[in-house]
Each structure stands twice: as structure tokens, then as C-alpha cells.
Amino acid sequence: MSRFAKNGHKRVCRSLGYALTLATPKAWVDLSVILTLRLTKAERAGLAYAALISMDADDAHDVASLALFGTSRGGGQ
To answer: What is the pTM of this model?
Structure first.
């Protein structure tokens, strides 16, 4: 992977590792900035799709709603 991956993809992978390790809201928001800078819209859509289909429907709905509208079914942010 390290020999053939694009440099931007390697940086995204490293940043994802940091976000997973820190697991704070700020880390996830900071990752979104890096994703915007380093990945295409199609690549970001693929990641979002893969993450959402890995969840059960209720959780996926809550996460998508929170991302799009700032609120989830429970009203939390």
C-alpha cells in the first residue's frame, strides 16, 4: 500500500488513525477538513456510504441527520 497509494490518500489514512485514537468531536471535525482538502467528492461520498451501511438503519439515520441538519432523532448534537 505504501508503495502505490497516492500521497494524499496516505495522509488521509494517517489522519483517520489520529481521529480514531483521539475519538473526540474536535478530532472528527478536524478530520472532515482534511477529507475535504485531500479527497475528491466521489471519494468522500464513498467513505460516507461505507460508514452508513456499516450501521443499523436507526443509527445510520441519526448520524446522517446530525451531519445534514445538526440534530438527530433524540435531539442531541
So the answer is: 0.85
